[in-house]
Structures are given as C-alpha cells and as structure tokens.
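Hi V.,

You were right to ask for the full record rather than a summary. Here it is.
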Amino acid sequence: MKIVGILLIIAGAIALIYGGISYTSKEKAIDMGPLQVYRTEHHYFPVPAVLGFVALVGGGVMIYAGSKQGR
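Predicted structure:
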C-alpha cells in the first residue's frame, strides 16, 4: 500500500507541475507510390490541478494507512 501511495504522490506532483500531458502523432497525408508525405500533429491533454491535488492527498492517506497497518 505504501508503494501505491508513493506512486500517487509522484503522479500528483507531476500533474501539478506540468499541468498536462503533451504528445505527438504522425499521420500519412499523401501516399503516391514512392512519394509519401507525413503530417505531424501536436496534442495536449490537460490534467486539472484538482486531480493532482487529490492524487497527492490520496497518496499521503495511503502511506499513513500502510504505516498503521504494519503495526
């Protein structure tokens, strides 16, 4: 349970620092025999700050609960 809590805290901190996930996709625009043209698109998936905060708090609760369970 502690490991999941630590991972949640890390994910929540990353979500708060960066504010989202950006990625690039590559699509084929033209395919005419030996001539191929690719188009690159940049996408951004925003992660709400509330979700990052919830992950931080949830990770802290899981670490706390895990330390109480081990006793």
